[in-house]
């Protein structure tokens, strides 16, 4: 019995010793792993960084000819664009005589040259870049830019359509919504308009493209109408003859178009007569002509003793009114005076 107990104790001691030895081996292996991942000294790290920078510098020096060549391509593109903007209108004089259309061709050709120059510079800078890859990248980039700058591109294409369809030119007087003025320049994105009062208005092309726009100087002449009136007691036919004769004396009335003088209707205090004639198309010429016509008609009707009436008002009362002169006294006031 005691012999078996001794054997059991011996086995337990052997197992305990084996477990302790295994744990010591694990601890030693863990310490060896920590020693392996211990950071290298500062000098070795600095040497690694210096080696990396040296490799980058060598790569940059090796790539420097490509960088210089790409810059030379961009400079050449810039010079070509400058020459095109300065002398490009000579190329399109035989194609069209309109200045706005010549400017449109020059601007579109400028955009194409810049795109080709940038594409070629990118291919020179990155030798592995092929035209197919470059065009694919440009396509993706254009989609992103199109969503980000949608309003800008809308104004750009509206400006191209305005220049192509030529509804107006530089120097024309236009009216769009509340803006009336002379067009100073039509650019790809904006149009500058000088108001008649002197202010400069920069209008997006999309605004002019979407809204109705009146070109007041599309022709050299413009029809103007005013309304005058004579009293109901005057001879209408005689008044029409007097006004038509007076219109022939006006300097600003064009003689290549017919002057029309017609009774228009019954006004509150007069018979209305409409006078229509043709004059210059600019706002200044229109105002000058209206002023001259009004002055001539007034003088002619006064000379013919034809009345241009003031507004008349007729008052009607339900009950008759007693009219008393200012020097007479009412009966009541007389009695009060006698009693006093």
TrEMBL record:
It is a multi-pass membrane protein. The gene is mscS_2. Keywords: Cell inner membrane, Cell membrane, Ion channel, Ion transport, Membrane, Transmembrane, Transmembrane helix, Transport. This is Small-conductance mechanosensitive channel. It is found in: Cell inner membrane; Cell membrane. SUPFAM superfamilies: Mechanosensitive channel protein MscS (YggB), C-terminal domain, Mechanosensitive channel protein MscS (YggB), transmembrane region, Sm-like ribonucleoproteins. InterPro entries: LSM_dom_sf, MS_channel_C, MscS_archaea/bacteria_type, MscS_beta-dom_sf, MscS_channel_2nd, MscS_channel_C_sf, MscS_channel_TM-2. One of its GO terms (cellular component) is plasma membrane. The chain crosses the membrane at residues 60-84, 104-126. The keyword Transmembrane helix applies. Mechanosensitive channel that participates in the regulation of osmotic pressure changes within the cell, opening in response to stretch forces in the membrane lipid bilayer, without the need for other proteins. Contributes to normal resistance to hypoosmotic shock. Forms an ion channel of 1.0 nanosiemens conductance with a slight preference for anions. It comes from Microbulbifer aggregans. Homoheptamer. Belongs to the MscS (TC 1.A.23) family. The keyword Transit peptide does not apply. Residues 151-211 form the Mechanosensitive ion channel MscS domain. Residues 224-308 form the Mechanosensitive ion channel MscS C-terminal domain. One of its GO terms (molecular function) is mechanosensitive monoatomic ion channel activity. Its main location: membrane. Pfam families: MS_channel_2nd, MS_channel_3rd.
């Amino acid at each position: 019995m005691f012999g078996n107990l001794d054997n059991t104790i011996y086995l337990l001691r052997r197992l305990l010793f084996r477990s302790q030895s295994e744990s010591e081996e694990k601890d030693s292996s863990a310490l060896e792993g920590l020693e392996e991942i211990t950071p290298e000294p500062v000098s070795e790290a600095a040497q690694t960084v210096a080696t990396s920078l040296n490799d980058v510098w060598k790569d940059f020096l090796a790539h420097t000819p490509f960088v210089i060549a790409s810059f030379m391509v961009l400079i050449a593109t810039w010079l070509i664009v400058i020459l095109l903007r300065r002398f490009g209108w000579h190329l399109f004089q035989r194609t069209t005589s309109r200045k706005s259309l010549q400017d449109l061709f020059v601007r579109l050709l400028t955009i194409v040259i810049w795109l080709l120059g940038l594409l070629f510079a990118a291919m020179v800078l990155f030798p592995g870049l092929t035209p197919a890859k470059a065009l694919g990248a440009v396509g993706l980039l254009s989609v992103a830019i199109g969503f980000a700058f949608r309003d800008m591109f809308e104004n750009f294409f509206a400006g191209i359509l305005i220049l192509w369809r030529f509804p107006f030119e530089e120097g024309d007087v236009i009216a769009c919504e509340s803006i009336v003025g002379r067009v100073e320049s039509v650019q790809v994105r904006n149009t500058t308009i000088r108001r008649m009062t002197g202010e400069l208005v920069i209008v997006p092309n999309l605004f002019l493209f979407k809204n109705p726009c009146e070109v007041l100087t599309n022709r050299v002449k413009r029809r103007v109408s005013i309304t005058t009136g004579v009293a109901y007691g005057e001879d209408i036919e005689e008044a029409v003859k007097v006004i038509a004769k007076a219109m022939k004396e006006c300097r600003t009335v064009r003689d290549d178009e017919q002057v029309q003088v017609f009774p228009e209707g019954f006004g509150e205090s007069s018979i209305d007569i409409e006078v229509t004639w043709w004059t210059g198309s600019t706002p200044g010429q229109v105002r000058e002509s209206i002023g001259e016509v009004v002055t001539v008609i007034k003088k002619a009707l006064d000379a013919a003793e034809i009345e241009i009436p003031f507004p008349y008002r007729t008052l009607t009362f339900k009950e008759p009114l007693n009219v008393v002169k200012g020097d007479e006294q009412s009966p009541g006031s007389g009695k009060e005076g006698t009693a006093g």
